Amino acid sequence: MGAxxxxxxxFNELSPALQQVARYVLDHPNEVVTxxxxxxxxxxxxxxxxxxxxxxxxxxxxxxxLKEAFAGDMGLGTETYGGRAKQLVGRSQDRGLTGEMxxxxxxxxxxxxxxxxxxxxxxxxxxxxxxxxxxxGFRACFPIAFSFVYVYRLFRASVHLVDGQxxxxxxxxxxFAKGDALVVASFAPYSREAxxxxxxxxxxxxxxVAITDSVTSPLSLLADETLLFTINSPSFFPSVAAGxxxxxxxxxxxxxxxxxxxxxxxxxxxxxxxxxxAYLLPPVSRG
Length: 287
Prior knowledge:
Layout: H1 3-10, H2 16-27, H3 29-34, H4 37-43, H5 48-57, H6 63-73, H7 81-86, H8 97-129, E1 133-137, H9 142-152, E2 159-162, H10 169-173, E3 181-186, H11 192-204, E4 207-212, H12 218-222, E5 225-228, H13 241-276
Parallel strand pairs: 1-2, 1-3, 3-4, 4-5
Helix pairs in contact: 2-5, 8-13, 9-13
């Protein structure tokens, strides 16, 4: 049983002071992992001594051990990128090196298909009902958000990329309105900006679709629907290939449900791309 499940199960037996801490750590799991004990205590309107007592009541030796358990729940391993990269050194002549990568990717796609097949239909229904759709992904997850917006915009105008360019993240978040949808992507270790955007969307009354690697990720805990993707990789950095794949499946379903009006908008968008010169015209066949 994970640390958060344990807290939920034992919540009613806690004293009022410990319940106050429990509410905060359940609502802000990534702060438990990234912030100091003193900062967590201040934000939870509690004291470091109470946090230690809270951890010990749950059976942990102290706050660092509870913090480690939260990190484990969130899929945050202790192995660094550099540590994993060392395992690749000297393998450049290994003929099986790239084959290993493609085999892992095949397994990632299969696992992602099984994990998200049912959730895709629910995510589609949520997105279709929204007056406007916003999408966010930062660092390695930027391609996931960008590809979603780029392709979805071919048949829906009210789709917007939240990228924070030029320090404009707060300005873009002001566009969030009640009933809108946010599609947000991140995997462990989770992006601070992705969580910030998700929290802003929640506060504005948006519905949230999380594209992430775990049902216990901070994004999933805020989301109305979660699309899981697998990030396994034999390389030093987690893979986003399955995240792009599940996003493409999402847009495919949205297109299939858009009907004839959607087809018309796609035809118009494609024609405009050719007319504007964005796409090169195919060579004219000569008889």
